[in-house]
Design a protein that fits this description.
about 290 residues; two-stranded antiparallel sheet; elongated; 6 strands; mainly alpha; two-stranded antiparallel ribbon; disordered C terminus
Length: about 290
C-alpha cells in the first residue's frame, strides 16, 4: 500500500517533501508572536530628530585631550578645531585651506558687524548734535539724549565705539544726582570760609577745605563733558554773594536736605556735615568714569 501512496504523491514543483510541510492545526511559529514593547522602553525622541540640538550638545560635551605631558578638559568642538589646526600645521593642504577659509570668513563677518555699528553711531551723533544746535538757536534746553553724543568715543583704527557716560535712564538719573550734589558742594566751598585753615607757622594744624575735596571726588564720577563749574553756576553763586541778607546756611541746608543729605546742628550758629555721612551717601554711587 505504501508503494501505491508513493506512486500517487511525487515530489516536484509545488509539491514539497511531506516531512517539511506544516502540520495541520499547529502554528508555524513555535515561539509565538513577540510581546509589544512598553511605552517606557521605547525611544523618547520624536519622529523628526532635533539634530541641531543634539549636534550642539555633542559639540559642547567636555572631552579629555592630551596636550604634551598633561590632559586638558575642553569642549568637543574645541578639540576638533585643535586637531584640524595641528593637521594644518603638519602640512595638510586640505586642513590649511579649511582653516584659512574659516578665519577669513569670521574676520569678514566681524568687520561687517563693526562697520555697521560704527556707521550707526556716527549717524546718531550727527543727528543728535543737529537737534542740540537747533534747540540752542531757539533758546530751548538741550534735549536729554541717552547716550549723549558727547559721551561717545570713536576708535577709527579698530572701528569700535565706547560710551563714557550713562546708557540708560537709571544711569542718567544717577549722573544727574551726582552733578547736582557736586554743584552744592562747590557752593559750600565758596561760602563756608571756616572749612579750611592754613597756618604757615604750623602746617600740621592746617585744615584742607573738605568741601573742595568732596567736590574733586564727585567730579571724578562724572563724564568729561560735565566736569568743572559751569558758567551758569558761577553767575548764580556771584549773585548770591552780592545779595543782601542772603542766608547761605539756611538755603544750602534746605537744598541738601531735599537730596537726602541733611546737616547736623551742633549749638547756635554751628552747621556741620560729617564726612561719614557723605561716604555713606556715596556708597551707592558708581565708580569713577574715565
Amino acid at each position: 500500500m505504501s508503494n501505491d501512496n508513493d506512486d500517487e504523491y511525487k515530489v516536484g514543483y509545488g509539491k514539497p517533501p511531506l516531512g517539511t510541510c506544516f502540520v495541520k492545526g499547529q502554528s508555524g511559529n513555535l515561539l509565538g508572536r513577540p510581546p509589544k514593547r512598553r511605552k517606557s522602553e521605547q525611544c523618547d525622541l520624536p519622529v523628526v530628530l532635533p539634530s541641531a540640538k543634539l549636534f550642539e550638545e555633542e559639540a559642547r560635551r567636555e572631552v579629555s585631550v592630551k596636550s604634551g605631558d598633561r590632559q586638558e578638559i575642553m569642549p568637543a568642538i574645541q578639540a576638533v578645531m585643535r586637531a584640524q589646526h595641528h593637521k594644518a600645521m603638519s602640512g595638510s593642504v586640505y586642513a590649511q585651506r579649511a582653516v584659512l577659509e574659516r578665519v577669513t570668513r569670521n574676520e569678514l563677518i566681524e568687520f561687517s558687524r563693526r562697520r555697521t555699528l560704527f556707521e550707526f553711531w556716527q549717524d546718531y551723533v550727527r543727528k543728535a548734535r543737529g537737534s542740540i544746535t537747533r534747540a540752542a538757536a531757539r533758546g530751548e534746553e538741550e534735549p536729554p539724549f541717552i547716550p549723549h553724543p558727547g559721551d561717545l568715543e570713536f576708535d577709527y583704527d579698530e572701528l569700535t565705539v565706547c560710551v563714557a557716560g550713562p546708557i540708560n535712564s537709571d544711569e542718567y538719573a544717577r549722573i544727574e544726582h551726582i552733578r547736582h550734589l557736586s554743584d552744592l558742594v562747590y557752593e559750600m566751598s565758596v561760602f563756608d570760609t571756616t572749612a579750611a585753615n592754613f597756618d604757615a607757622s604750623d602746617p600740621q594744624r592746617s585744615r584742607v577745605d573738605i568741601w573742595l575735596l568732596h567736590f574733586a571726588w564727585l567730579q571724578s564720577q562724572l563724564p568729561r563733558r560735565l566736569r568743572g563749574v559751569s558758567d551758569k553756576l558761577q553767575a548764580e553763586v556771584a549773585q548770591r554773594i552780592y545779595r543782601r541778607g542772603y542766608r547761605w546756611k539756611a538755603d544750602l541746608k534746605e537744598r541738601f536736605s531735599k537730596m537726602g543729605l541733611p546737616f547736623l546742628q551742633f549749638g547756635p550758629g554751628s552747621l556741620t556735615w560729617p564726612i561719614g555721612d557723605l561716604k555713606e551717601a556715596m556708597a551707592i554711587l558708581p565708580p569713577a568714569t574715565g
